[in-house]
Amino acid sequence: MISYNAIATVLFGDFVDRIGDNFKFLRESLYKADVKIPFRTYLSVTFLDSIVVYLFSLLLFSVGSLFIKMQLLYKIFLLLYLPFQLALLAAVILVLYPYQKVLNRKKNIDINMPFALTHMGAIAESGVPPYTIFKLMGNFEEYGEISREMKLLVRNVDTFGIDPLTAVRELAERTPSNQLRQILLGIINATESGGDVKTYIKNAGQQALFDWKLKREKFMQQLSAYAEFYTGILIAAPLFLIALFAVMNMIQPTIGGFDILTLTKLSIYILVPFLNIAFLVFLKSVEVEM
Asked: Taking the chain, what is the end-to-end CA distance rounded to the nearest angstrom?
């Protein structure tokens, strides 16, 4: 039985070959995200999925328009515009998915890098070669994507017979993390130049951990400022606003044509929760994760 991916490649493969140069970022994202689908197949599937979404939504809206009474202009909008927009949205999501996966992998690697490097430095103290360090690090799942990268490196050496230094160089080219790339290239340079790899890894781990501690201390100091902001803007200000609305409601129930009681409810049930959620999202974005 012919697979869905094969059908998509047959239908759109030649078209992808002609326009593939316009999607270089997608090719690179697929490579760094370690997506197990060739670029030609992935983009072909994206086009086919978009067409499927268009036809399905067109059929769904066509059937729905038979049972829902609406003006002709709305029907035209529903049948022509919305299916196209849904198909376009599906294409955009599929094209951006590998890039989002690259960002997630990069974040995971960068978060675990100081602790993984410290561990690697401790292993290097025993005098084992770098390849053995990589092999051991692949067994520690708590390092997330770093362990996964190490497993791929070991697989390339043990299964495919690639030279260890070549495998490290290939991993440095593929990894989405600049930090890990610099460490791997540094290990290659130290090995090829006859330098002390053990000292390099140990120093790199100490520096990475020191930088992480500085970022953590800076974030903890910023938390005090964020706490004052939260107290003043998201606690005191809403209470003052609600109290003000309560007093104004007793004097004049409307202001500028708006009912004060309605404005109070909107502030309590919509504005205040929205501001608190926005503040939590902001804290999550600036947090120095561990």
From this structure: 47
Phi, psi of 144 (to 5 degrees): 60, -125
121-171 pLDDT, tens digit each:
888 888 888 888 899 998 888 888 999 999 989 998 998 888 888 999 999
Rg for the chain, CA atoms, rounded: 28
Q: How far apart are CA 288 and CA 100, in angstroms?
A: 20
| pTM listed for this prediction | 0.74
118 has pLDDT over 80? yes
Specify the residue for token string 């993390």: 177
Q: How far is CA 66 from each of CA 71, 75, 83, 140, rounded to the nearest angstrom?
A: 12, 10, 16, 59
**Residue in 233, 234, 136, 133 with CA at minimum distance from that of residue 191:** 133
Residues 15, 51: contact at Cβ < 8 Å? no
Average pLDDT of the chain to the nearest whole number: 85
The answer to whether the beta carbons of residues 267 and 242 sit under 8 Å apart is yes
Residues 64-101, buried b or exposed e (16+ Cβ, 10 A)?
eeeeeeeeeeebeebbeeebeebbeebbeebbebbbeb
DSSP type of residue 143: G
Chain mean position to CA 20: 24
The sign of the torsion formed by the CA atoms of 151, 152, 154, 155 equals positive
Domain ranges within the chain, ordered by starting residue: 4-102, 107-210, 215-286
